[in-house]
């Protein structure tokens, strides 16, 4: 690691959030990607959008190649002090520009009931049609 294991606070890392001074946090490590901004095949905007937070999920979501991962050590300047990373920011997964937004989760309480209702409603209608048909038959007999 180029940074010799230096530990930075989250507050320190987030100060470097400009095109000419851009640091990222990926898997607990701090990367100074300033010299890489123009070369990054995904563009500099996505890197800028990943400053000031934990960019691990964004980086992983892209499915970077092994050769991309091999480039990383040269930009690594140290580690982030995990205790200083705000929990909600550490878990934040913002969709990267050009990437698909995460699908809404259907397994939440409300979602399950909606699915059950969607399945049950047509069955209920068929059952009612049969009942009506039988009722009409018995009336005419
Ligand atoms: C040190 C950090 C990073 C390095 C060295 C890096 C390197 C690369 C490389 C080499 C590629 C070309 C494709 C590949 O080989 O996988 C790439 C593509 C890309 N990267 Fe990064 N990247 C970094 C961080 C990030 C971050 C934080 C994001 C945020 C979302 C990002 C978003 C993208 C996107 C959107 C592409 C284009 C993918 C495509 O066109 O299919 N990268 N990156």
Automatic annotation (TrEMBL):
Keywords: Heme, Iron, Membrane, Metal-binding, Transmembrane, Transmembrane helix
Gene3D superfamilies per record: Cytochrome b5-like heme/steroid binding domain
SUPFAM superfamilies named among the record's database cross-references: Cytochrome b5-like heme/steroid binding domain
Name under which the protein is recorded: Cytochrome b5 heme-binding domain-containing protein
Subcellular location(s) of the protein: Membrane
Organism of origin: Triticum aestivum (Wheat)
Matching Pfam families: Cyt-b5
Domain Cytochrome b5 heme-binding as annotated: residue spans: 5-81
Family to which this protein belongs: Belongs to the cytochrome b5 family.
GO cellular component: membrane
Segments crossing the lipid bilayer: 112-132
């Amino acid at each position: 690691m180029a940074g010799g294991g230096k530990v930075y606070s989250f507050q320190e890392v987030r100060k470097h959030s400009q095109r000419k001074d851009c640091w990222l946090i990926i898997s607990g490590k701090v990367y100074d990607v300033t010299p890489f901004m123009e070369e990054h095949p995904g563009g500099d905007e996505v890197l800028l959008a990943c400053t000031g937070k934990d960019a691990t999920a964004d980086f992983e979501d892209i499915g970077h190649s092994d050769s991309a991962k091999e480039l990383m050590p040269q930009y690594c300047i140290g580690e982030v002090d995990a205790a200083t990373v705000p929990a909600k920011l550490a878990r934040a997964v913002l969709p990267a520009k050009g990437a698909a937004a995460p699908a809404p989760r259907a397994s939440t309480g409300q979602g399950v009931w909606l699915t059950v209702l969607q399945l049950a409603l047509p069955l209920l209608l068929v059952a009612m049609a049969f009942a009506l048909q039988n009722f009409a038959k018995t009336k005419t007999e």
